[in-house]
Amino acid sequence: MSYSSSIHKKIYERIIYLLRRDFVTFVPYVIIFLILVGIEVVMYFLLKEVFPLVFEDPVWHPVLVLLGGVYALSIWMFFYTAFNDYYLDLWIITNDRVVDIRQSGLFGRTIAELDLYRVQDVKSECNGIFATMFNYGNVYVQTAGEAGNFIFRNVPNPHHIREEIVRLAEEDRKHHIVRADEEKKFD
Question: Using an 8 Å Cβ cutoff, are 3 and 91 in contact?
Answer without folding.
Answer: no
